[in-house]
UniProtKB/TrEMBL annotation:
Keywords linked to the UniProt accession: Membrane, Transmembrane, Transmembrane helix
InterPro entries: Calcineurin-like_PHP, Metallo-depent_PP-like
Stretches with biased composition (Acidic residues): 561-574
Protein name, UniProt field: Metallophosphoesterase
Key word Hydrolase present: no
UniProt xrefs under SUPFAM superfamilies: Metallo-dependent phosphatases
Amino acid sequence: MSTPPPDQQPDPQPEPTPQPDPARERRLRTVGRHAGRLVTGLVLLAVWAVVAVTVSLLLFVNSSRESVVAGHDAVVRPTLDGFAVVRPGAVLPDLRMDLDSPVGVEVALGKTEATSTEELVQRYAFIASQPDAQIDKVSDLVVDMALAAALRGAVAGLVPVGLWLLVGQGRRRYLLRRGVSWQGAATVAALVAAGVLIVQPWQGDPLTTTQAQDDADDWQSLDSFLEGAVTLPAEVAGIEVRSDVTTVQSRRLVESAISTYEQSQTFYSEAAEEAADLELRQPEEDETVVVLVSDRHDNIGMDPVARAIGDAGGATAVYNAGDDTSSGQPWEAFSLDSVNDAFSDLDRYSVVGNHDHGSFVGDYLGDLGWTRLAEGDIVEGPGGSVLMGVDDPRSSGLGNWRDEPGLSFDEVRDRITEASCEADERIATLLVHDAALGRDALAEGCVDLVIGGHIHVRSGPTAVEGENGEVGYTYTSGTTGGAAYAIAVGSKPRRPAETTLITYRDGRPVGMQWVVLQTNGRFDVGEYQPLDYATTDPEADPTAPADPDDPTIPGGSDAPEAPEDTAGPEDDQG
């Protein structure tokens, strides 16, 4: 068959025009919308992050907190130079230490209570020998400022994002068109000019001494500052000192502080290590042990020792019988921070003593998480026991009882007796500062054990048969701080320092054991004394008071005789 010529071939049929696929187009539009929203979301997220981080950093480095640090009213400020800087004032040199961290801190010390610069410097050295509580306190303040700044920055970052979403697409296009006009440019220029007038950057602040010293960067090592006069402990070798004409005159004070620091750290560190290896009576499976501390009087050096004794005896709770301070003033918060740091993971119960004047000590310990037994409170105590306590009325911190102001020592004793005898359950332990507050409750047979301190000399445990035939015990602990008088700050205890372990079984105190750290660093450990509620025969009772001539008793035969009632309003030695 012949092929027709090209001009006679039929025209090719046109390709059919593809018909639009509505479903496909809908899918493409949906994908486009999702992609656009994703890009917009990522851009808004980036804007939020940039604004949040910028604002957070600005707020953080300009934050400050007022607190009590190292016995001073202090202002704590974070920095980004990686140093911990302490500014103690005009007399003593500034100190700093590299934290090996991008975040640093500056602590400016203010008002405090001290009778002399020498006393102040010795206190610094003593606190520095047990620094953990103060370090934790400052660290918590910095973390708190960082969290607050981050929260505010996160909220600030939402502002531009929220405005973008609130304005809407149509209004954004309108504002863009207006922004590129001469009216928009004039508006922006006016806003910038108003901001400059408000900030007035040309004014500046007068140059301060601190800023001038910062610019001079005249830091030197502590060893160079002391000109090699003393051998520095390894812990302080990294400290740097800012020296000028005034602070050079303080070199002798710093040398004295280094000596006190080294002696304190050596004595108490060795004591804590030795206490951990003491052979103490161990609790049975059904028993609970509590460590009792009393009359610390600011001796933070004994806190790790008392904790080591508690750990060696299996203690899971702590009783604080008061007189943590010498005057109850806020500058003594370092003492409360220390005892809390030592026992922070145990169940903690406290009353305040006659030297803890005012409400500061009790409120501060309560804020730190201690169970406060201020006004005859009854709570569940260690080992399922019933615990009752009351603050010493000679401290103005008591203030009132059931809204009745001005109660005397005898009146509080009457109230505590009435409350203990009317309690739904028998009181296993009455925690007071002065055991004389529980005398009548024991006499009526309403309490198993009354524990206190105050007179700085151990007494008991002594069995007392109540009017109802029930037997109870009274026990007075020696001073845990080794205090001769109202303050125990020093490179070692001023007198024997005592801690007591109390054992509970079935909700009752069933035994006690005391541990004494002598001023020469020797430990004396008392025999475990069971508390027998079935007899009060002194000849058969192994818990009869110890011989006052026993040299292991704090103070030995020279110890003052404990009075029956120490409620005298002028007693200020306990």
